[in-house]
User: What shape does this take?
Amino acid sequence: MKSTEREPLEVEGHPEPDRVFEARDLAMGGLLGALAIALPMVFHALGPGVGPIFLPMYLPLLALGLLSGWQVALTAGCIVPLLSAVLTGMPPLAPPIALLMLVELAALATTASVARSHRLGILPATVLALVAARVAGVLALLTVGHALGYNKSVFEYAILGLAVSWPGMLLQLTIVPGAVAIIERTSLLRPRWELSTHD
Assistant: This one.
């Protein structure tokens, strides 16, 4: 009797592609997550106030979202700002900047990953992720932030914050998509979403 179970997608001893991508996602999550903690330390060493201008923590996590599955992207987006706050004091837990950044970074990385999984190009996925992160941050400000006594206005948080951080936004719209495109052209890290689909 013929089995109806799906045959493993292994050829000549090579592991199933889904397992390859799962392992790759985990490795990239660890690497880019660590970079998201280390990079802000480098920027802050250049002078006070440099971090909010260039948003260094956002760069590796956006790249992770564009390159990996949403589970790894979401997990890293939630863990990295809290771990960085504990290890380095940046972003601060009081006022609850770390919590607001957690929401923004989780939305940023997850939206980028989901958009890519739906075959959206790198740049459109990046733009969508940036918008989602800003909206999520405002919602977090109006709920969690205000509940914890952080009474910054939406205008100050979103509009004035954007005016300060435009260099970081520019890096997210240029350097990160360019780096992701280069990574996806390499032989070892080809486009995840193209290769993870089977007929």
Notes: The two ends are 24 Å apart (CA to CA). The chain has a mean pLDDT of 87. Helices lie at 17-45, 50-54, 58-67, 70-88, 97-117, 122-147, 154-185, 192-195. Residues 154-185 form the longest helix (32 residues).
